[in-house]
Amino acid sequence: MRNELAKSVIGTRRLVLRPLREGDAPAVFAGFNDWEVMRFLSSPPWPYTLADAESAVRRSLDATTNPDEELRFAITRKDALIGIIGVRHRAAGEHQRAEGYNIGYWLGRDHWGQGLMTEAARGLIAHTFALTRADAIYSGAFAENTASLNVQRKIGFVPYSETVLYSRPRDAMLPHVNTALAREAFEKIAA
Ligand SMILES: CC(C)(COP(=O)(O)OP(=O)(O)OC[C@H]1O[C@@H](n2cnc3c(N)ncnc32)[C@H](O)[C@@H]1OP(=O)(O)O)[C@@H](O)C(=O)NCCC(=O)NCCS
User: Fold this and answer.
1) Of 2, 5, 47, 87, which sits with the fewest C-beta atoms within 10 Å of its C-beta?
2) Structure confidence by residue, pLDDT tens digits, 48-67
3) What is the 3-state secondary structure (H, E, C) of the chain?
4) What CATH number does the domain containing 44 carry?
């Protein structure tokens, strides 16, 4: 299942999601090395370097053999990488109420506000539900990240708790909303 997911190429109306591959690091760096993107994220280093992008791509290539690693997909439009969306299997914990798949994403600033992340996330989620028996998919965002919480709300995610999460780029603990998307809710909204 995981291997099949890792190799998937997912087409949506305007986008193609494909596994990250060698050679993607410069495009990842170009979109990701932006404080307006970084300030909403928890784990990347800041300042961000091309070597960090290369290392992220390398870890992603290992993801088929390392079950703890996130499966990362390039979000491409007309063959250009414009962002990343990842899915990983996570144990239940403070920021996820049950074991299951968790999604995270970013999009280069030039591409915001056109519904592209909603489209990309719907594509990956539909594919993940189709390939797995998961009855829910988890996500979340820092409480101030209205755009991301809107993306999730449009898809059918429902907030279920608020925690405090460390943001490495901000070097601060920030309020974080945890959300879950039930399979039935997704299928109902998508229908
Ligand atoms: C969050 C992010 C992925 C959204 O991508 P996007 O393609 O612009 O999202 P969409 O256009 O599909 O949907 C965004 C929604 O939020 C709304 N929105 C955008 N910015 C907003 C803001 N500052 N305040 C309120 N609403 C906002 C949009 O109007 C849209 O809702 P609508 O369709 O009802 O009008 C993008 O802004 C991003 O990469 N941000 C930085 C990284 C990040 O936050 N990643 C997620 C971490 S949880």
Assistant:
1) 47
2) 999 999 999 999 988 877 88
3) CHHHHHCCCEECCCCEEEECCCCCHHHHHHHHCCHHHHCCCCCCCCCCCHHHHHHHHHHHHCCCCCCCCCEEEEEEECCEEEEEEEEEEECCECCECCCEEEEEEEECHHHCCCCHHHHHHHHHHHHHHHHCCCCEEEEEEECCCHHHHHHHHHHCCEEEEEEEEEECCCCEEEEEEEEEEEHHHHHHHHC
4) 3.40.630.30
